[in-house]
Amino acid sequence: MTVNLVDIEEALERLVAGESAYEFETEERTLRILGPACGFGGDYLKRLRRDGLYAESIEEAREMARAKGLTITGIWFVKG
Question: Coil, strand, or helix at residue 79?
């Protein structure tokens, strides 16, 4: 599997078009928040969500990042 980083403006368009995020990126990669396209198992994702490291949407990812004083700057997508 290959993933590519997309700046936030283009990434938002891709999310609106229905594409799923693999990972939400913050400045200087100080916080790693995985998204629905990561493909990990349910139990692991529950643990990540509990720890603030998994988000189903950009809104949820932004809240997690904001809670740590960070901003989402880009989104990783699975490259087809």
Answer: strand
